[in-house]
Amino acid sequence: MDFIQNPLGGTNIALMAFVVAAAIVFIVTPTVGSIARFVGAMDEPDYRKIHEDPVPRLGGLAIFFGFIIPALWFLELTPQMKGVLLGASVITLFGAVDDFRPTGPAVKFTGQFLAAAFLVGYGVRIDYLTLPMVGVINLGASLAILLTLIWVVTLINIVNFIDGMDGLAAGVCSIAAGTFAVIAISLGRPGAGILAAILAGTTLGFLRHNFFPAKIFMGDSGSMLLGFLLAAVTVHGVLKSIAAVTLIIPLLILGVPIFDLSFAILRRIKNKRSIFRPDRGHLHHRLFNIGFTQRKAVLILYAWCTLMSSLALSMRFAPGFITVILAGLAIGVSLYLVYLLEILKIRTRRSPRLR
Fold it and tell me: 15 to each of 20, 179, 186, 231, 237, how far by Cα in Å?
């Protein structure tokens, strides 16, 4: 069952929800920034961070208000939607606590699995997968629950990991959510499409205050909320469809942040460091270290994500030869960036400025 019962007018509702969400976040964010300064929820500079002055956190609270109001307005309160709302509230609360007073990985994972459990408990699960040339694979109850929990927690951490440069996480999530909105509506999942449009609106509204030089950071309250909502959209809007490309599409749209997370984990294991210990080896750090400004580094990653999303859209809508061209371009660009950033050497090139 979808989040709304009547798919008619799904596109128009999605556009309205997008505008409302963007407007709410744009208006509320300065007030949240003032509250963060008042309570001392500030992100202080340190050796691995790029910003030089303290910046207020808790931007995730503005994103949460921008999500919850249009979600209640434009979507029916079905059991699945209750799971999304409860899970979003839980993950935002755990993130806000961490923004105010940093907690350890155990506390964060507790909040992430608890939020994911609300989704599963209210029926938002990956019950089956559709593989190209294989068909539909029914997972069974136990495997469905396990796979959904892993997927949700993974996406939460994927967004959390890329939130290391002004406007990066917000922009990447806006591109991904907008793409998911189009695909979900085309697959006959208008409720999930509207939810994705709301998510795209919240991130775009927040980006006005978060792009370089950022006036406020989203903090863990924002990055974990965005990851949770992306997971909810993918589970209910894309992965549950019987279309043959539904497993590939999310992996393409989220390909860049998935690659960043995977590389970060492998790098830390290779260097015999805890996978939970932050470092300066992420894609955005590497672009900055070889001489790109924050603005240019973020725009490069935006372009990379847009290319991957365009490939996903072409698989759904475009003729085969267009998809082949885009696939070749995506592979070429990805290989070039892997070479440029010296990913395979697992070391960072220093910029002339740092020398």
Answer: 9, 13, 14, 21, 17
Q: What is the CA radius of gyration of the chain?
A: 19
HSE-up (13 A, CA, CB side) for residue 49: 12
Q: Is 348 left (phi over 0), alpha (psi -120 to 50) or beta?
A: beta
Reported as a single tens digit per residue, the pLDDT across 180-197 is 999 999 888 899 999 999
Transcribe 231-272 into DSSP letters: HHHIIIIITTS--TTTTHHHHHHTHHHHHHHHHHHHHHHHTT
Q: Please, which residues bridge with residue 20 across strands?
A: none
Q: How confident is the model at residue 5 (pLDDT cuts 50, 70, 90)?
A: very low
Residue pair 282/161 in contact (Cβ under 8 Å)? The answer is yes
How many Å apart are CA 117 and CA 95, to the nearest integer? 17
Give the C-alpha separation, 326 to 275, whole Å: 34
β-bridge partners, 131: 135
Determine the angle formed by the axes of helices 168-186 and 294-317, rounding to 10 degrees: 10
Cα three-residue angle 250-295-224, rounded to 5 degrees: 40
Residue of 345 and 102 predicted with greater confidence: 102
Q: By the 8 A CB rule, do 200 and 230 touch? A: no
Helix (H, G, I), strand (E, B) or coil at 80: helix
> Can you tell me the mean pLDDT for 244-269?
85
Token pair in block for residue 176:
């991904």
Q: Which pLDDT band, with edges at 50, 70 and 90, does 141 fall under?
A: confident
pLDDT of residue 346: 45
pLDDT: is 102 or 332 the higher one? 332
Before 257, cis peptide (omega within 30)? no
d(CA 133, CA 212): 45
Report the half-sphere exposure of 354 (CA within 13 A, side-chain side).
Answer: 12
Sign of the torsion formed by the C-alpha atoms of 236, 241, 247 and 248: negative
For 137, the 3-state DSSP assignment is strand
SS (H, E, C) 165-234: CCCHHHHHHHHHHHHHHHHHHHCCCHHHHHHHHHHHHHHHHHHHHHCCCCCCCCHHHHHHHHHHHHHHHH
